Amino acid sequence: MTVTLDGGSLRITDLVRVSRQHEHVALGEDARKRVENCRSVLEELISSRIIYGVNTGFGALSNVTITQNDLEALQINLIRSHAAGIGPPLSTDVTRAMMLLRANTLAKGFSAIKASTLDTLIAMINSRVHPIIPERGSVGASGDLCPLAHLALVMIGEGFAEYQGKRMGGSDALEAASIKPVHLAPKEGLALINGTQMMTAIGGLMIHDARSLIECAERSGALSLEALKGLSEAFDERLHKVRPYSGQIASALNMRKLLEGSKLVASEHERALKGLHRQDPYSLRCVPQVMGAVRDAVDYASRIVETELNSATDNPLVFAEDRAVLSGGNFHGQPVAIVLDLLAIALATVGNIAERRIARLLDPNAQSGLPPFLTAETAKPGLSSGLMTSQYSAAALASENKVLAHPASVDSIPTSADFEDFVSMGPTSALKLARIVENVRSILAIEFLCAAQAADVRGMENLGHAGKMTHDFVRKFVPRLDRDREISSDINRLADAIRDEDFSEEFT
């Protein structure tokens, strides 16, 4: 299959297909015509106008006029000087997502880049020439200048890249893939590095992962509820219709499906007849309210990010039909930064509520009827610790998430001699979000581990159909705990299984 770029219809699903499944990319014919027309208009205008970033310096140096003979050197110097990143490289999927997003915004036809330069970027994606891009160095306005400069370095045959799994010089990587380096024309360097593609790439991938985590969290929560013999009333459709948040309604519906046929969940009346508590703790009872809010946050973030995927974000922009060149601030990352901070808060909540269910499954004071810390039936509590310290790990990750959830988008440190005096810090929002996603994935792996062990105690025959499927999923990767063992590997195997793109297919 091929993802065809037109500058206006890219979706997060396309982003995932290209960045993680290596699908082929092509430039649409209408987009090519727009790109060529825009470039032609700019070339006509250069000789008679002073245009920011084309024949002037950049940022605080924008009042410096550049002579005709130095216009190409201006663009090359821009790329080299802005490649100042530090830290470990971005992952390959994020790098590919950045390349795709930069190609798509250029395909809109407002950046005045040569079609041949855009073709080079697309050829690199298809040939898997992946620039080595340090993850830190961008403040999110004027866009992600620093990481995009490292991307552009490889396009001109400099910097470093990964090709067929090997790190090498950018020039060597292009040669190995039979791709010629780009000779930058006026405006092209700026067109390549001015935009929000790093933060948006990470954001798009994390939105995709967040949807999977929601599915995981509701499934692990349902198995925990069965293991703890929870109540069913909390998920009644009538309750949620009178507080009609779409996410809450969807979550409650999913929980009803996941608990259908279970012999372990009870009604409040059945509980009362047995002299048991007639209410569940919030971590069980309020799953739809909490996960519904997360669902709504992810849906909102998805709308914002998909708008950004298809936006022109460099400066200046060339409007060919009007023969106008307009400078503005479309590179500013604030819209993306805010929703990535929102996602961080929402997903931290997923980890928080899951950790509370883990604690209840393990707590000998919870009067659940389960063995202390889910020690094996043949083991002696005290002599054996069971899954006690798995909750320590979950608590550590949940606590770390609370720190990471502090919004980066409320901060700003001026750059470029105070010329760029308010920046978004969106890349920090993105990197924190990615760490939270990893942490939540591990917390949910721990809940799966504990809930499956508790389900074994309750008896597989008492689980509903979905509960049995969830239990079987866990046991596919981790055996029942029959005696104390090192459980870090168990957690990691389950976390890897949750990360797997085929996770949802396990339950279809």
Question: Could you describe the 3D structure shown?
Answer:
It is built from 19 helices and 9 strands. It is mainly α and 508 residues long. It folds into 2 domains: 2-195, Fumarase/aspartase (N-terminal domain) (Fumarase C, Chain B, domain 1), CATH 1.10.275.10; 203-507, Fumarase C, Chain A, domain 2 (Up-down Bundle), CATH 1.20.200. Strands 4-6-7 form a 3-stranded antiparallel β-sheet. The longest helix is centred in the last third of the chain and has 33 residues, at 426-458. The radius of gyration is 26 Å and the shape is elongated. The two termini are 24 Å apart. The mean pLDDT is 94.
In short:
Helix content is about 55%, strand content about 5%.
* Outline: elongated
CATH class placement of the largest domain = Mainly Alpha
Strand order of the largest sheet: 4-6-7
**Which percent range fits the helix content?**
40-55%
Secondary-structure element order, as H and E?
EHEHHEHHEEHEEHHHHHHHHEEHHHHH
In quaternary terms, these chains amount to: single chain
SS-based class: mainly alpha
Identify low-pLDDT runs.
none
Say which CATH homologous superfamily of the largest domain is assigned: Fumarase/aspartase (Central domain)
How many strands, what sense, and barrel or not for the largest sheet? Answer: 3 strands, antiparallel
